[in-house]
């Protein structure tokens, strides 16, 4: 195993605190040693709140995970403890458990219209039910934001609404990756066959978040064993400038916050030896995966994955130490992504708005290239995976409209009717990069094979 920082964790008032005795990076770390922040250190401002309302996981010192029922009770208690928090059910899982959206704002939770006047950050917490650290870190972060008395936190929340969703309660209870339909929800953001994916997409469409961090865990192995693996949208239909900002959030802010606290970070899917990546084993362009879907709908999105098995002898000897590290790393990644917004909220909001406008213009002008394969670091070599002369839209027949109309609307895609009565999905929409992945015969995960139109 690589040499790692020497660390000791203390339990303070039932909450987990981290004391560093040495810091540094291992070979292959991809982030700078200091997170990029301005306007005060949000992490230090949040720290005191951890002592006031410990999560069940924290009370157990990391030896037991919070149950679904305990999380419902915890969030209920948090709404009583702070006027900043609201919890509402926005859907039901396959087994009818509530899909709860937790919102935090100052002086209280904002409406969608009010939130749109500022910034919105969205955290998807453990969409895989057997990856518990994401939902634990979301509970702790929501609590810390809600209960902090620091002026920097209040100032931040006046302009930024922070949203959390536990996106797979049935998998949580069953301790399975999939939901109760045996579907991997993180492969369902195109077809929207699961109520869990539909709830996440509804939040994205209705709240229009500026940033999104999807919190996961991964299984480490040789050449692939850092505390955090992170990744941005890689689908080639994502707006270039938006993707660059997402990569910055992922590598400089999220991973930067993690490494600044003495942990290690790397790029998801890349095996690394002697500090250099030599093989890519995951992290592709699939639009049905949330980090890619986020980019396709003009959200600055990313993926966070923390190692779910021991990375040193201390963690091998103490499972609670391992569990606390898993939660701490996802917490720090989430915190780092918030610090991108804290640094310059106008920049982030302008980037998402500009990306949507550029996509709409490209669709109207039939400019650029559309891709059905490849990713940001790989140009497709198969001519069937590219369209250098984009269509203006797609025509749908009556059966396609009946079967897909509601799904397209959930994606924020408009279906129009021509003077001749035809139903058309034009590419002159902010979702220009997403539409062909849903409707074109060349797309691997298409929902149907619609008729491409040269003119609209």
Question: Secondary structure elements and their pairing?
Answer:
Layout: E1 7-12, E2 15-20, H1 42-46, H2 56-59, H3 68-81, E3 85-92, E4 98-104, H4 112-116, E5 119-125, H5 133-147, H6 151-159, E6 160-166, H7 169-174, H8 195-207, E7 211-218, E8 228-231, H9 240-260, E9 265-267, E10 270-273, E11 276-280, H10 290-296, E12 300-307, H11 313-317, H12 319-343, H13 345-365, E13 370-371, E14 386-387, E15 393-396, H14 398-410, E16 416-417, E17 423-426, H15 435-439, E18 451-453
Parallel strand pairs: 5-6, 5-7, 7-12, 8-9
Antiparallel strand pairs: 1-2, 3-4, 4-6, 8-12, 10-11, 13-14, 15-17, 15-18, 16-17
CATH C-level label of the largest domain: Alpha Beta
Taking the sheet with the most strands, its summary is: 8 strands, mixed
Adjacency order of strands in the biggest sheet? 3-4-6-5-7-12-8-9
What is the count of DSSP helices, taking H or I runs of 4+ residues?
15
Helix content: 25-40%
Global Rg: 22 Å
Instruction: Quickly count the domains.
Output: 2
Distance between the termini: 59 Å
Give the total of beta strands. Answer: 18
Q: Please name the fourth-level CATH homologous superfamily of the largest domain.
A: Zn peptidases
Name the shape in a single word: globular
**What's the CATH architecture name of the largest domain?**
3-Layer(aba) Sandwich
Would you give the CATH topology of the largest domain? Aminopeptidase
Average pLDDT over all residues: 91
Q: Which regions have little confidence, pLDDT < 50, spanning 5+ residues?
A: 5-39
β-sheet strand percentage: 15-25%
Decide which structural class fits the backbone.
Answer: alpha+beta
